[in-house]
Amino acid sequence: KPTEMSNGKSLNRRGFIQLSALASAGIAVGCQNVQYDKVNFSPTSYSSKNKGWNPRALKRKPNVLMVVLDDVGFGDLGCYGAEHKTECIDDLATKGTRFNNFHVTALCAPTRACLLTGRNAHAVGVGNIAEWGRDHESYRGWIRQDAATLSEVLKAEDYATYAIGKWHLTPLNDQNASGPFNQWPTGRGFDKWYGFHGNAMDHWHPEMFENTQAAYPDKSNNYHLSEDLVTKSIDYVKDHVASDADKPFFMYLAFGACHFPLHAPSDNIRRKKGQYDEGYESVRSKRFEKQKEIGIIPAETELSPLNKAVRPWQELSKDEKKLAARGQEIYAAFLEHTDHQIQRVVDFLKEENMFDDTIVMVISDNGAAPGSETVPSIDTRRAAYMGPESMEEKMKYLDKLGSDESYGGSSTGWSQVSNTPLKWYKADTYGGGTRSPLVVSWPNGNLPQNQICKQYTHAIDVVPTLLDMINMDFPAEISHQVMLPIQGLSFAYALENPEQKTRKQIQYFETLGDRAIWAGGWKAVTKHQKGDPFEKDVWELYHIENDFAEINNLADQQPEKLKELINLWFQEAEKYNILPMADDAMGLYIKTVPQPKARYLFFRGSTRLDRLSAPDIYNFNSKLRAEVEVGTNANGVILASGDSGAGYELYIRDSHLCFTYVYTRTQVARVQSKIKIPAGKHLLGFDINKGIDGEKTLNLMLNDKVTGSLKLSDMWEIYVPNSGIRCGENRHAPISRDYKPPFVLDGLKKVVVDLNISEI
After folding, report:
1. Strand pairing class (667-672; 656-664)
2. Fewer beta carbons within 10 Å, N or C terminal of the chain?
3. From CA 330, how far away is CA 325, in angstroms rounded?
4. Which residues, at least 6 apart from 486, have a Cβ–Cβ distance to it below 8 Å?
5. What is the enclosing helix (H) or strand (E) of 147?
6. What is the pLDDT of residue 691?
7. Across 88-92, 388-392, 595-599, which has the greatest mean pLDDT?
8. What SS3 state is found at 213?
9. Do residues 349 and 240 touch, judged by C-beta distance below 8 A?
């Protein structure tokens, strides 16, 4: 009722959408002083009609398999010029279609929001990852409810919907055992989900979930996350076929590979030994020539120079070369191992005569990550949060890189090789961050085989394209809620005829202040320096249509064109509610950590809790007490938090109370009780108190007596580890490595942790 809104109060998002729907139906809506979101709420719903796609005669809707790789660069696949043996993806490309002008947002979660909704990331609330979320509706890190996901749309069309792997679209504070679960995959249209929430997942000891429950995969047989994800994918399809074979399915298979930590089976790493000793400049040059040879880049393309942070290979010391080459061997093994897992899915679909009727898309969420140094880290978290590792430490871990005793990442030079021929990296709005491989396969769709489509496309265009391919319109309403209209443009016309001209007109980019705008073959871009005023950012201008790798900056030659594009970016920023921007990723992350409580209570056998549910023993004096009744030879975990790279645990081994604190893989502090714990009922635990100099003292407590002490000069904040709290056992990541999991403690009743938060 308009009269109820004429008092100057703002109208909420849903109310405005409903008014838009009324207006589109020809009903006059008269409201005074109405304020609303700045997103472009066009009342026109998406339709697949007249989009340049000749609808196929379908006996049934085809299955859809969307495979999303993580941090894999434009030049990393064999079919994009790499020396990597990505035989499955290459075969899909040979028998299907590749795109060389497909773009993403330069960051993982925003790209995933685009892929799943068909709208721009800021428009749906995911201008940043959840860890960097803030109180701005465009940067919260989760998808707004009126932006239906592809799974929600297809589910309404009687598709079965399955999500496997990385999600990264749930608020941090909602990733705990009590939810809420409305932004988990099963709350956004997926019938089933098996996977993990965040990024940077340990592939040997991942923190897994199934639907809304913590999951504990069997690790008894050379476990690896990528293999586990594919096994579960196949199991879901088997169940689907057994129960309702006539029903199509949509599967969103999002690997953790090849995001750091780089984890690959030892046999795969061994096969790559020595293959990168020649250095990154040589390998990059060879990829560049191969790319021109196979036509994935134009013949006139120039190879971008080394990024500023990359030292020439010849300037590296012998040890630096050895470490850098080793890191790339692991990355190559990681990628090839992932390709082999995709082959397992494809083979199963072929065996069951389902492959020909399945649309397969293989995409990367952004360009390769830059890494922090010339050579890879033993533990990337340490480099990010605690400071660099010494070369001596790194060389001692050379043979452990890639194993579960490492948490290493990429190095700057090899990451630029991944992005060949482009410059810069993930999170940068240059081509190295935004240009992604895209392979499309659908045998029954009669797509042009072994074609390279050159039309400019973006992640927001995937949903309307898939809807075209399955002869479906996007609904204006779902469950009586008016939907935010699709903002992408179908590129099905390119699959119909790869020689057609680009129909897309404009696409903006923004990531932590890095900005870009593409329009009509031109691109303006700026690389923001953290802490600098945004108005002082220096913009560059490239004629991308003739300058694939963004080499020739035309800003000085064509200042009016640059001004036009900058103005256009600000128009898009207004339309999609981008401003104001923020660039303090670490500061935003810390703000997401919940306020500490005075008391925490844990029970034996309770579900694993998220890491932000851990008591903050770093910032506050703390007291832990566990009520136990033990026998004469007690063993088991009391409380475990974190993993072998950053974590602590209190446990009993051979009736001794033990505490281990892992600050880094090379800095591990341990203490054991002076006496054995007698059989019977006890209060066991520790007290941690800060000294005058800030150093902390931990006292092991057997009832009311100190039975061991330890100085803790270095500790980490609770948001550093990737793993949460386990009580009474540890089926998850190893910490002390002093026992064989799960190491259940019989006789543990509960654990209470008190923090002296009055110190705030």
Report:
1. antiparallel
2. N
3. 9
4. 45, 46, 118, 119, 463, 464, 474
5. none
6. 86
7. 88-92
8. strand
9. no
All residues at 6 or more sequence positions from 135 whose CB lies less than 8 Å from its CB, including other chains: none
State the pairing for strand pair 457-458/97-103.
parallel
Structure confidence by residue, pLDDT tens digits, 722-760: 788 999 999 999 999 999 999 999 999 999 999 998 765
Give CA–CA dist 290/284, Å, rounded: 10
C-alpha 440: how far from chain center: 22
Integer Cα distance of 714 and 691 in angstroms: 13
**Is the confidence at residue 574, as pLDDT, over 90?**
yes
Question: Could you give the CA distance from residue 279 to residue 532 in angstroms, rounded to a whole number?
Answer: 35
From CA 207, how far away is CA 732, in angstroms rounded? 7
Q: 756 burial class (0-12, 13-18, 19+ CB within 10 angstroms)? A: middle
Q: Which residues are 602's β-sheet partners?
A: 751
Q: How many CA atoms lie within 13 A of 334 on its CB side?
A: 30
> Coil, strand or helix: which one is 755?
strand
| Residue matched to tokens 């209470």 | 752
* Residue 605 in tokens: 């056998």
Q: What is the DSSP letter of 15?
A: H
Please name the amino acid found at residue 232.
Answer: K
The superfamily in CATH containing domain 63-457+467-496 is: Alkaline Phosphatase, subunit A (3.40.720.10)
CA 567 to CA 345: how far, in whole Å?
A: 46
- Which CATH architecture does the domain made up of 596-759 adopt? Sandwich (2.60)
Kindly state the average pLDDT of the residues 2-12: 31
Fold matches, 63-457+467-496 and 596-759 = no
Return the structure tokens found at 586: 């670490």
Domain boundaries, the chain: 63-457+467-496, 506-588, 596-759
Residue 571 has pLDDT above 60, yes or no: yes
Q: Give the three-state DSSP class for 640.
A: strand
Average pLDDT over the chain, rounded to whole? 91
Structural contact between residues 715 and 591, judged by C-beta atoms closer than 8 angstroms:
no
Architecture of domain 506-588: 2-Layer Sandwich (3.30)
As beta bridge partners, residue 683 has 627
How many residues are listed for the chain in this entry?
760
Q: Which residues contact 219 (CB under 8 A, 6 or more apart)?
A: 204, 205
Structure tokens at 200: 């940077």
CA dihedral over 102, 103, 108, 112, signed as positive or negative? negative
- pLDDT score for 648: 96
> Contact, 60 vs 246, CB < 8 A?
yes
Contacts of 158 (CB under 8 A, 6+ apart): 247, 248
Q: What is the DSSP string of 572-592?
A: HHHHTT-PSP---HHHHHHHH
Q: Which helix (H) or strand (E) holds 187?
A: none
